[in-house]
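User: My instructor asked us to take a sequence, write out its structure as tokens, and then describe one feature of it. I'm not sure where to start. Here is the sequence I was given:
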Amino acid sequence: MAYVLGFFAADGSMLENNRGAHYIEFHITDKKILEQMREAMGSNHKIKERKRDEKWKPIYRLQIGSKVFYEDLQKHGFTQAKSHTLKLPLVPKKYIADFVRGYFDGDGCVHFKQYKVRGRKKPKWVFQTRFTSGSKNFLQDLHNLLKDYGVARGFITKKNRGHELVFSHRDGVALYRLMYNNTPRIYLKRKYNIFRKAMKTLYGE
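Assistant: Let's start with the prediction itself. The structure tokens for your sequence are:
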């Protein structure tokens, strides 16, 4: 559930309609992750598919009508239209890795590629990780939290649609070891595989 909370913070939404009904929603292109989160929440709600243009993957949507879930999220500081008001919730220390991994799978990216550098014979490996949010305060609090787990550097930069918390090589390694060291049950494989490629290439792990 800490993973689900992290993913919701990144890419979920909540709605109370005019009739007083309460909903929470998730949208993602990876159906398996959505199925795993649905199972974690004990839900049997239907996952709906929305097809897009051929060059884009279909989007899967899970909507859950639950006043209990809605009010639990409110207790953690979440609101409707939360993108610019998001705050880091209080998460027990033993679940921090799961929460961070959930947020990263929802609104993070990992980059590992080789680039040719002028004046150097060998290409240079670039290993970078990023968290995105419309809320600078959330990223600042997340940045401070991650320092306790060896993710010691990094910086926040402004983007057209929000802000990014950016980490380079050493911090990417520390972030990998935080997010995946507890043999997680739920994680996005395509991002994990990039981390694994980086660790194998750079460290032989």
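For the description part of your assignment, you could build on this observation: The chain has a mean pLDDT of 91. Try explaining in your own words what that tells you about the chain.
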